[in-house]
Amino acid sequence: MPLTIADLKKGERATIIDSSSEDIPLKLLEMGCLPGNIVELLQIAPFHDPLYLNINDSYLAIRMETAALILIDIINE
Amino acid sequence: MSKQINVALIGNPNTGKTSVFNALTGLSQKVGNYPGITVDKKEGFCKVSRNLKAHILDLPGTYSLNASSLDENVVIELLLNKNDKDYPDVAVIVSDVENLKRNLLLFTQIKDLKIPTILVINMADRMPRKGITLNIDLLEEQLKTKIALVSTRKNEGIEHLKNLIGNFKALSTEANLDTSTIDSDYFASLRKAFPNQDLYKLWVVISQDANFGKIDRNELDFSKFKTKTKSELKRLQQKETIKRYQFINNILKEGQVIDESKATGYRAQLDRILTHKIWGYAIFFVILLTIFQVIYDWATIPMDFIDSSFASLAEWIKVTFPGGGKLTNLIAEGVVSGIGGIVIFIPQIAFLFLFISVLEESGYMSRVVFLMDRVMRRFGLSGKSVVPLISGTACAIPAIMATRNIENWKERLITILVTPFTTCSARLPVYLIIIALVIPEGRFLGLSYQALTLMLLYLIGFGMAVFSAYILDKILKTNRKTFFVIEMPSYKVPLLKNVALTVLEKTKTFVFEAGKIILAISIVLWILASYGPEKSFNNAETIVEESFPELRGEQLENKVAAYKLEHSFIGIIGKTIEPAIRPLGYDWKIGIGIVASFAAREVFVGTLATIYSVGSATEDDDKTIKNRMANEVHDNGEKVFTLASGISLLLFYAFAMQCMSTLAVVKRETNTWKWPMIQLFGMSFIAYIIALISFQILN
User: CA of B404: how far to CAs of B157, B369, B425, B592, in Å?
Assistant: First the structure.
């Protein structure tokens, strides 16, 4: 199983490798959630949902169910 | 002769677009609605040069030309319709210097529509702090546009922007991206089918029709063109987005340098505290408490002043024009008390909008959404429902309009349906007067019983909203897909000018919208109370004198006035419904108040004021409504306002759907009468049952 944004730990960074799932809203893609871009998990809300991310220099929050659709490669720093 | 041009302000949310609008137009702005829909339309004027005036339209914030909401769709509809009277001669795209990459996506799309376009890079004052340097000449050349570096906070760059607008004819209308490179096969066939149309415009129309099917496009005949499925279109939109980002990244690689080591900011530190699992909630709770505290403490001072001013005004009219007869009475008893009932809301509404706009402008509201989403979802709501539920304490109408950014239809619908349960400011005067009448003075743990009752009523309102959301979540079925994206803007100190203009504009809208209804109802009520069917009403004096021959002077006049009211049109209406409301502990006069309140709750106090002032002929000391109400008795001599009937009345007002304006807004937002009718009958039924039970138990 490839990793998704839902697998990220707080403070971790990753490269997006696929965001083509039907259920990912277009708006998210337009905000920069596209293959090759960097995503960083900044905060996790209480009760572990939603996730507060920095994607391609855009700061935004999405729910776990959407995060689990975006495939990533974690960057080991 | 000065010429006038149309300027459209377009931009992502949170880019300070409204600040630019305010800087350009100042106080010469007005807010309306687009025809047929409730999307705010803000427009204003700006003198660009000696003989050129610009009509400036502030369009709703949008991330791209692929609309996913009604607000965003307004932008596309306007830009695609050359015949629209607001069609821009020049488009001004407002972007945030900290997020240029994403903001340029929308810029390139607008540019490709071949509208003369100016790029505003806003919040330029933050550049040194974020370590950003820009090569403006290079950006202008590559993006084929003119750029204005603007800081509304420091009031810099606005004059330059005006100059650019004035020279709009010199702007290039060349596209940024060759549309056909998105998908050469698809666009080649599109070109073949519509040789005379602009390719990019065609594409925007096609991708929008997939989402908004109904748009009238009579000049285009799509019958001979094979359309794509929704998911194929989405893939193309994705390709377009990737292409555009490639284009933008190439430009920014040279045109923008960001030195991360120089970047400073409080975002991370503030987020750590404000979204903390304990501190986050604690701070939010303290902020809410402060808001309520301030609204009650500070607003009561101007409210008392307004109350007494209007009472003396009515008195002054009666004294100054003693012989005026019917007209004087109509003005003093109907119009002035009606207007007073609206004006008294202004302090509270203004304070509430002040707080809400500060919370939004500062970027804090997004953190609340983030913090509350998981909790709210348990009740079928969204984190974004928090904003409407809080603004609902001012007025349900702006609150329901604030649900538009909830992407998920079911969560949005539930939010719309339950928002009217929150204690809006229109309920407040009703609560205040009844609490003062029936709740005894005294203290519990240092807090007065009356204040505690009021707080309890607010909690009941929120509780009922959340509880009914939970029930609706179980009942409603929907197969629309859910998603949730919220931008977390950077923290900013709110701009005084923006906050002041928001407060001014919202308060004005509320006063005039509610004012029209209240004024009309006050006049109708007064007429209904002052006239009646021929016989018994007109012969009141003789009838009363015959039945009570022992009465003289003042007592006789009072009896006549009461008799007249009972036999006026409104008295007859009240008497007719009395059997239905008797079990709740109300008499026919309260019944009239309730019936009138279905237009708007705030009418209640004014109605009783009108009824009681019509019903008493003498100028006694009991001029305040409260005293008159306290002295009301049933036929058998028992007091009308007791603890039981008072509580019953409070609960009735807490739950009943009594606001025509809200129903109208819900109809517009849901596009059907089904939901407002469910609200009207459902909520009022709940109100009746709960009021009935509480009266029967307490009595």
Answer: 33, 14, 22, 36
